[in-house]
Amino acid sequence: MLLTGTVVVDSATVIDEGAVVVDGTTIETVGERDELLDRYPDHERRDFDIVAPGLVGSHIHSVQSLGRGIADDTELLDWLFDHILPMEGSMGADEMRTAATLGYLELIESGTTTCIDHLSVSHADQAFEAAGEVGIRALMGKVLMDQASPEPLEEDTEEALAESEELIRQYHGAFGDRVRYAVTPRFAVTCSEECLRGARELADRYDGVRIHTHASENLGEIETVETETGMRNVHWLDEVGLTGEDVVLAHCVHTDETERDVLAETGTHVTHCPSSNMKLASGVAPVLDYLDRGINVALGNDGPPCNNTLDPFTEMRQASLLQKVSQLESTALPAATAFEMATVNGAEAAGFEQLGKLKPGWKADVIGLRTDTSRATPVHDVLSHLVFATHGDDVAFTMVDGEVLLDDGEVVGVDVEAVREQAQTYAEQYS
Amino acid sequence: MLLTGTVVVDSATVIDEGAVVVDGTTIETVGERDELLDRYPDHERRDFDIVAPGLVGSHIHSVQSLGRGIADDTELLDWLFDHILPMEGSMGADEMRTAATLGYLELIESGTTTCIDHLSVSHADQAFEAAGEVGIRALMGKVLMDQASPEPLEEDTEEALAESEELIRQYHGAFGDRVRYAVTPRFAVTCSEECLRGARELADRYDGVRIHTHASENLGEIETVETETGMRNVHWLDEVGLTGEDVVLAHCVHTDETERDVLAETGTHVTHCPSSNMKLASGVAPVLDYLDRGINVALGNDGPPCNNTLDPFTEMRQASLLQKVSQLESTALPAATAFEMATVNGAEAAGFEQLGKLKPGWKADVIGLRTDTSRATPVHDVLSHLVFATHGDDVAFTMVDGEVLLDDGEVVGVDVEAVREQAQTYAEQYS
């Protein structure tokens, strides 16, 4: 297939009248449109205004999709314990499948081709199947909670780890290696030391399996961990093995200098979720400091109940705007950096190789945008335009691993209407 | 015309299966869908998921639309003096007409039915004509700059005020009273005392003419004013007559207690522009304190070069999220308040009576939204959904004064393609 448009190869390279040629699951070549049209006259063709690498949502809760808007404007602890966890705890296999499918549909419809997905305690297999059906690339895992958790969610430590291992055997590397496994403790507060150390041991037993958890999102959380362990949260995670190049920590809003040193020294990945941090009043993560230290910072939308969108363009824009206003510096976190966070940095966090740029030999995860709207006119700088002016509705085409998942704005191979109707019906039981 | 859907009457009242009946330029009745369908069987009908009051953009720069993306990620003073003001200064009548038209198109396409528009020094008549052509409701005026301004923009005080008066005679109350005049000094830094006092005198001579200016947006501005006048900015504006129930001050990010007292005592309106304040690193306006004091706070997108969208839903969401994170309080500025800021508070600032709610006898400024998308599924609370999940692309229908401006997502009566092409061509001269 041959895709034409202004081609954003990466944050530093744009081809004004370019084209991308895809062969199988990878990009064959990228270059000038006219030259490639001459060279590949028989290739099936799609024309766009902008062609870009698929975006990476590096901290997502697809299975919370039925709770979009369930608890807006509420106190954080009420939000979690009165709304979100009860919803997760009450969801059966069908609800989980519908929620995950809806989440993946929203992601591919708005330009996310890879996600790092934090599932729930039960029915994680439903989300793996949904990812396989929709075709998204994902690093994902069943959630571990073995202490201080509401009744239906708290599990026996050994059983939870054993179920995780079953899922690894079944799904790690599944669907043409589009789906990989991350052992996923919810956060230190709801996981015993045995659980956290067990997560590390389990991840180490399987090549390519990673670890994904929440860390230092809010002040109450880090106080609880410090009270129980005598350590700051990141030090505790480091102590039990949950730092390193295969670990993704979502949020990291509240860290001190010594914790940042640990993150940098261990090569731990951080996912910044600006809209969620704003809506839940968590605070402003020290993203610029992390980047200065060489820490890999990716971007995530978090879940629909705390955002309330999975649009990755909204998050790029928000990441830049939030750093500018909090630093009182209008040059802070420019478009190129936001774009890197949402592409190559996300790919690095997720552990997928040759992903996040439109380069020959790299994975054919590509999006095509149409920007023939008043709100996207005029275009001065296309990279800046992607970050500050366009959004998910401009995405007309989404390809993962060379497979077209969204074509001319329509999802391929999934009955989207049926999923939406089912989601609305299921959602009416939550409040 | 009869519009059906979940009807958001105002921030406190929602009719789940409702309808709005429009007669001429006003709303005739609002109620249950089935009852109104029985009562008005022959009315032309439109069906939506949500029917809501048209939104009010209370601080807009439509004529900066050609500069969308012109100077992202730059220092504030470079942004203004190296990019925005030179662009405005170089624009001829045709560029001004195209820019304003593009701005009004973007506004009506994304659900804004009324704007308070800050034009430029020259060719203001072109924007008035554009507003008349597109059909938007607007309070707007030529900009006054008579000191400390770049060459092509600085004008003789008397001549500038005389031209303003000409425009008042020509356009105040024009287009069926959809368009009204606001005398528009740019800000205290670029306006002499004579100019500011002249603005007040001019506004007082014409019934319904208001005053619109920028105030206390950034620290450099208020330092300059204090150095030159010996007063804090709002005190200076009060001294020269630029406070009161007919005055709209955009931004008010940096005010002290005594200035807030003045704003409250004089009934001066404040327009909050959260995305702009974030992108230009201006700071976080004390919106909650203003509201606590009874100050009327409206919402605005500011201009495309500092946002980069005129989508009013983005601004409602941003207003809520920015207060939550800056106050570290997730209940701060809830959806209902954001919605009031973008509707009735904006109408009050603009001075249009019976505007901003869907009530019998009120102005027929109405929008219809379709939300049959993955990203807008499910819906729990419709008001909260409007603020946190929907955006301008969901707007399928826009009516101002009973006239349909956008129908089934298509602008009525304007060659939108031609405007966009012209805008892109003109825009290429700016950088």
UniProtKB/TrEMBL annotation, chains A, B:
PANTHER family: AMIDOHYDROLASE-RELATED DOMAIN-CONTAINING PROTEIN, AMINOHYDROLASE SSNA-RELATED. NCBIfam families: PRK07228.1. Residues 18-42 form the Aminodeoxyfutalosine deaminase/Imidazolonepropionase-like composite domain. This is Cytosine/adenosine deaminase. InterPro entries: Amidohydro-rel, Metal-dep_hydrolase_composite, Metal_Hydrolase, MQNX/HUTI_composite_N, MTA/SAH_deaminase. Keywords: Hydrolase, Metal-binding, Zinc. It holds the Pfam family Amidohydro_1. Residues 50-404 form the Amidohydrolase-related domain. One of its GO terms (molecular function) is hydrolase activity, acting on carbon-nitrogen (but not peptide) bonds, in cyclic amidines. CDD domains: ATZ_TRZ_like (cd01298).
